[in-house]
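Human:
Care to share another protein and its fold?

Assistant:
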Amino acid sequence: MAYTRGTSANIIVGAAALFTYEAGELADGNLPAYAAGESYKDTLQDDPGFRNVGYTMNGLELAFQPDFGEVQVDQILDVAKLYKQGMQVNLNTAFAEATLENLLFAIAGQDSDLVATAGGAGGDINELTLNSGSLGECPVERGLVAVGPGTGDCAPTEQVERVYVAYRALSIENVTVSAKRDEPSMFEVSFRLLPEDGGSYGKIVDRNIPAAP
């Protein structure tokens, strides 16, 4: 086989669309099926169980942080063996649409903290109560799905995409709400991904979308 420098079709450039599973923890059974001739973004947009967070800034960053233990022996100066003793996965992004729904998601608030009132004397009102929580309160976990550009060549009538699925995502970092003259108000958020009972954090799927029949 002749040497090739690389494959430009495997270079990914472009942002992903981010969706949250509003019911909480996500499982494969809650994911809608892939549809021929349709991007998964459109499939999720039409599913009432998922909400599009809208515009994001600084893209999407998925960080894997393994933790290894060391075994040292007398006969060599370096470590003789490494063993995996821990794992942490984080997903980082910034919500550019400063809605109260996105703020509730960013601060891992309870659904009951956000109340919408329509048609009153004061007009339509969305009210987010900033609760401190209570001892023993379960942290709010929600599923995440992101859909962005994929790898590989496709025919003119097809397209490629990459789907990122996180079963359990929990916001763990500080979230700042600002109103500034020269900067947009956005919510920078870091999600800690947790494994489901089978040990899986989620999955990444490269998809070649065939044309609709």
Summary: The CA atoms of residues 18 and 146 lie 4 Å apart. The mean pLDDT is 90. The radius of gyration is 21 Å. The first helix runs from residue 40 to 45.
